[in-house]
Structures are given as structure tokens and as C-alpha cells.
Design a protein that fits this description.
With 149 residues, the chain is an all-beta fold. The chain has 1 helix and 9 strands.
């Protein structure tokens, strides 16, 4: 077993005042450097890697769930008034704060369509930006369907 510390400190904030809301989370990491093929941790002063991850999301929700006549309606099985949620998200990861140009930033614009409490369609457009100028910006389109039972 390796010895050495691997600590995480963080906080998060969540605000939701329907139909708008936001979340923010930040985590700081402090890890002793691992050396050698056996990955033995060294605990000498100065062999600590500091990292940081942050996420911010803002969202707006609309749809049938906000109509009073639907709010009072009995919900049988998995039925739920269809609603939509648009959001924008910012993620940033810096694996070593003492090294320049190693961070990754991801911007996401997305739409969630809630068909039921356990069923949703999610469509995201992600853009990955890298601190290293040798890595080019990447874009991806992601669609995901979730169904729970």
C-alpha cells in the first residue's frame, strides 16, 4: 500500500427558484507526488500537486408542469406533464496549478425534455478548449435518452 496524502476540499452552491436556477461547485485537490514504477508516494516537502475543478450551471425550465390545471392533476404510474429545461454549463479542470497550459475548459449548451419523472431526452453541444495551444478546440454533439423503471 502506498503512503502519502490525497486530500480534497470543496464547496457547492445550489439555487432553484422555479423556473430558474444555478449551481456552482469548486474542489481543490492536494496530492503527494507518486514516483517509481511501484507508485510509491513521497512525502517530502515540495512534492505536492495542487489541482482545481470548477463547474457552473444556469438553467431555465418551462412547460406543462407550470400550468395550474396540470399541477392539481393526479399523476398515475410514470405520467408527468412534459417540460423543457435549457441550460448552459461551464467546467474547468486544472490538474496541476503549478504547471501552465494544462487546463481544460468545457462549455455546454443543452436542452432536457422531461416526458415523465423517470424519462428524459438530453441534447448537449459541448466545446472543449485546452490550455495547451498544440491541442485544438473540439466540439461534440451528444444525445442521451434515459428511462427508469
Amino acid at each position: 500500500r502506498s503512503t502519502g496524502k490525497s486530500d480534497r476540499y470543496g464547496f457547492d452552491i445550489y439555487y432553484n427558484h422555479d423556473p430558474i436556477g444555478f449551481t456552482y461547485e469548486q474542489v481543490e485537490g492536494r496530492d503527494d507526488t507518486l514516483t517509481g514504477t511501484a507508485q510509491i508516494a513521497t512525502t517530502k516537502l515540495g512534492n505536492e500537486v495542487k489541482s482545481r475543478g470548477q463547474t457552473f450551471t444556469a438553467f431555465y425550465t418551462w412547460g406543462e408542469q407550470w400550468v395550474k390545471s396540470f399541477k392539481g392533476q393526479a399523476k398515475y404510474d410514470d405520467w408527468w406533464p412534459t417540460s423543457f429545461q435549457s441550460f448552459v454549463r461551464w467546467d474547468r479542470w486544472d490538474p496541476n496549478r503549478d504547471v501552465g497550459n494544462d487546463e481544460t475548459t468545457i462549455w455546454t449548451a443543452g436542452l432536457n425534455v422531461f416526458f415523465a419523472e423517470t424519462t428524459k431526452l438530453q441534447i448537449n453541444l459541448n466545446q472543449y478548449r485546452y490550455g495547451n495551444p498544440a491541442q485544438k478546440t473540439n466540439n461534440e454533439l451528444l444525445a442521451q435518452f434515459q428511462y427508469g423503471f
